[in-house]
Amino acid sequence: MSIVRNFKNYLQDRILDDQKYQSDFVQSEWFETRIDDYNLIDLIGFGSFGRVYRAECKRFAKKECAIKCISKRQAFCSDKILNEIYIHIRLSHPNILKLFTVLEDREIVYLVTELCQGRSLANLIQEKVQNSSLNLGNSFISSKVPVLPFSMIAAIILQLCDALDYLHRNSIVHRDINLNNILLIEKYALNANVRIKLADFGLAIDFNSNRNYENTDFGSTICGTPGFISPEVLHQKSNVSSQSDIFSLGSVIYACVSGQSPKNCTVCIDRLYEDRISMVSPLCAPI
């Protein structure tokens, strides 16, 4: 079976797992609306490995937070959960989502983090594209104006660079920099005053740790987001480094300007596996 077909199967499996997980999570007998000192208020997001709820802490005057609920029943999750906790709990940076504490029961691990009132960068760009009547399916964008204002793009990228610099100086590579993992702190600061938080460290690698990633499902599984994943991560090569995150950073910049993520399926994947970096559609015109 070809490498490209393997990657396509991986993507399809993630979609099927996500659909099954959503159904299981709602119907499961162990789902609760109250966890320890926290009351779950409403669902604010979900993905292949869990759901995220807005919650309030009874102990601290009902202070709001976010709780990521991850099922232990998925085999790949065990390594991912341990890795995310091990790395994330030690991080402290103004542009990295703060992990406060970790709770667990027989079926679920709960990651309690600070709450971002805004949306993800992916949701913001999607909304801007729809409002601007841009067609994401085309290779060229029908407008010469960037989807987001340049002042806002600059603010987002500078903060993301600060977060990555902090991680890389601490020998940590995120490996999954994408629009969904960049969160806006406020709802309405959609200009140069925008503030962001980098989230989701389940696929990160700490090169200073004693963990042997190669001997785990986590270390041997293709990971990342199509269009944002670097060639060496996609190849599962041993030379993954901070440059892998820089590659993904470039994809984020492209998406902020063009309104589309550089993930145009088969051709892009083929080129990645051939180590060709020209994987994105060109912008329509100089801006």
UniProtKB/TrEMBL annotation:
GO molecular function, one term: ATP binding
Keywords: ATP-binding, Kinase, Nucleotide-binding, Serine/threonine-protein kinase, Transferase
Catalytic reaction equation(s): L-threonyl-[protein] + ATP = O-phospho-L-threonyl-[protein] + ADP + H(+); L-seryl-[protein] + ATP = O-phospho-L-seryl-[protein] + ADP + H(+)
Classification via Pfam families: Pkinase (PF00069)
Lineage: superkingdom: Eukaryota
InterPro entries: Aur-like (IPR030616), Kinase-like_dom_sf (IPR011009), Prot_kinase_dom (IPR000719), Protein_kinase_ATP_BS (IPR017441)
Residues of the active site: 176 (proton acceptor)
Binding of ATP, residues: 68, 200
PANTHER family cross-referenced by the UniProt entry: SERINE/THREONINE-PROTEIN KINASE IAL-RELATED
Name used for this protein in its record: Calcium/calmodulin-dependent kinase-like protein
Organism, as annotated: Sarcoptes scabiei
